[in-house]
Specification:
37% helix; 279 residues; Rossmann fold; alpha/beta
Length: 279
Amino acid sequence: MRKKISILGCGWLGAALGLYLSAKGWRVKGSTASQEGCIRLENTGIDTYYIKVDQDSVELDYMNFFNTDVLVISLPPQRNENITELFPRQIDQVIKYIHKLNIPRVVFISSTSVYRNTNGTVREGNEGHPNKPVGYALLEAENKLLGLNGVGTTVVRFGGLIGADRNPARYMSNKQSVPAEAPVNLIHRNDCVRIISEIIVQEKWGEVYNACSPDHPTKQEFYTKAAQIRNIPPPQFTSGTGDYKIVNSEKLIGQLGYSFEYPNLMNYLKELEEWAYRI
């Protein structure tokens, strides 16, 4: 019997993960919280479910989504003033279904925003006192899921996502006072997908992993080139590093034996430039 995997939140990353695992023989179920998303997801061939997770309830069409061997939770916190309260309550609603259906394994997609800007390198175990509320919300969600009895939960803290049609310059073009020498902490979607797959295949449960490219060019170097490719203005830079962090992913590389598909971010931009030129 094929193993089942359910991806709660099949957006830009989740859908790519679903297609990758489906090609490897998994039975993949994916969820989305909009009718438009359902149409898009159904067109990929992934078994599609409508699920909307609120702070007090879960709206869903079929309970069968949670009948699974592995649940991947890919729900980004909604940015609002009550994020530190609302997002953990959403995770509480998901936990009810984890218990109800006895889901044995969970992968939670988190973020490096759980780390404070330390002006140095951060590793697993250095989390706490984040710079923004989203970091506190994710950290509380991580702790809830890692503390579940009888459930193997692994947390993956991704850096900023890049890849495919997602040129990072479009998110930075109008930014002002961006520290020129600050390092970037980014990861290509292909690497995200492969890392999640390796965690599941190698059964690395009960772990927390940072996941960023080991390459950390400066923001000025990276975003100036990315803006040129898209033919938009670069951010407005200021001198110096400002407050920054460098996210270390050596634990993931060592324990998974993982080699990044995109270890050099400037080479990724060259690839993006060639693709833009062809079209």
